Amino acid sequence: MLLISPESVEEALDCVKAAEHLDIVDVKKPDEGSLGANFPWVIREIRDAVPAEKPVSATVGDVPYKPGTVAQAALGAAVSGATYIKVGLYGCTTPEQAVDVMRGVVRAVKDYRPDALVVASGYADAHRIGCVSPLALPDIAHRSGSDAAMLDTAIKDGSRLFDHVPPDVCAEFVRLAHEAGLLAALAGSVKAADLAALTHIGTDIVGVRGAVCEGGDRNAGRIQPQLVAAFRAEMDRHAREHAAAVAAAS
Ligand SMILES: O=C[C@H](O)COP(=O)(O)O
Prior knowledge:
This is (5-formylfuran-3-yl)methyl phosphate synthase. Keywords: Lyase, Schiff base. By secondary structure, the protein is an alpha/beta fold. It is globular, with a radius of gyration of 17 Å. It is about 45% helix and about 15% strand. It has an eight-stranded parallel beta barrel, surrounded by six helices. It has a single domain, classed as TIM Barrel (Alpha-Beta Barrel).
């Protein structure tokens, strides 16, 4: 699945123009961090603008180790209409802290909306910020009852997912997530050139912003529907080639 992250209602409307090419519209506020949380009314307006059959995701923030605060914020995202709730475990230095936070989120969200999906997100560049390491995420997600384990990059300075977690380690991340019955989501300045590897390792959700913004600039550029369509075409091409290779080998 392709997840695209607009930061405003205007950008979400550009996503709507490319709705057939994407699977999830992910509301965030990049100027508040990699998984910066947007205002509840922005989530609501975007939910109202996006076709009903397209799920809307919302990031709850690059969160501190404050389980109660984060659970309440996650409920806010769900009440505002998001059915994927993404939490960036920025302030969690141990897996136990991360499980604590995610258990609160899962309970808060699922008591309100049992079919909502909770995404526990860590950071590929965790070593730069001192939070839980990337390969701990599948177990954190599993132990907390989350539905997906995700990696993004915390510091958006041009470095990318594979600069910090090479494809073979991402493959292990995906394997661990699948073994635990979770969806595996990967992001972090992902470019079309990364799609062959991401497809090959069985990534369920690829998250992008910069690659589909004007000039490849996630901050100054705005999401362009034609770039979303082109990115999707590349994803589909790799999926077809991978399926053909698997069929030929069996
Ligand atoms: O969840 C996905 C992120 O928005 C990725 O953003 P990026 O591709 O600019 O790193």
